[in-house]
Amino acid sequence: MKKTGKIAVGGIISALSVTIMFLTAVLPFLTYVFPICAGILMIVINEELGRFWGLSVYFSVSVLSIIILADKEAALMYIAFFGYYPIIKEKIERLNKALAYIIKLLIFNTSITFSYYLMIKLFGLSAEEFNEFGKYTIPILLLLANILFFLTDWLLNILISLYKKQFQTRFRKMFK
Q: How far apart are alpha carbons 57 and 75 in whole angstroms?
């Protein structure tokens, strides 16, 4: 694919990702779902254009999301993990399966913890909001976040396989 085609595809995926992220203003209860959906679009960039273009799209969507989104939590979720994870997933999975899951969990938990720290310190999220379940709030939230991570990882495996089997040849024919 020519460079102009790569730029066009990157722009289209960036625009779709930002549009999906913007939907958090309309449906705020999907704060975690929309960053995952925007990250899923990175499959196309990663498979067709490579990591460099994937990271370029990731950075552009991250900057635009943090500037224009009202829901900064969704923007940080995208930036902290869901935007770049589809790009690095394949590289991590080349390792031993157990080691790969340990690395994935370390990256995820570090990213989520750091993003919530930023939300409390920079965006004024009240730490009292984490006391709904008493002293068990943070462990419960981390457990739920890890369940979400495993579901996302499983979904990405299915979607990557589906893309390679069903859509990759069609996509390449469109952008010859």
A: 14
The candidate with the shortest Cα–Cα distance to 109, out of 72, 139, 89, 66, is 139
CA distance 86 to 152: 10
pLDDT tens-digit profile of 78-102? 999 999 999 999 899 999 999 999 9
Entry pTM: 0.86
CA 176/CA 172 separation, integer angstroms: 6
Secondary structure letter of residue 31 according to DSSP: T
Give the total number of structural domains in the chain.
Answer: 1
What would the DSSP string read from start to end of 67-124? Answer: HH-S-HHHHHHIIIIITTHHHHHHHHTTS-HHHHHHHHHHHHHHHHHHHHHHHHHTS-
The residue range of the domain holding 14 is 3-174
Question: What distance in Å separates the CA atoms of residue 112 and residue 94, rounded to the nearest whole number?
Answer: 24
Both tokens of residue 165?
């089997």
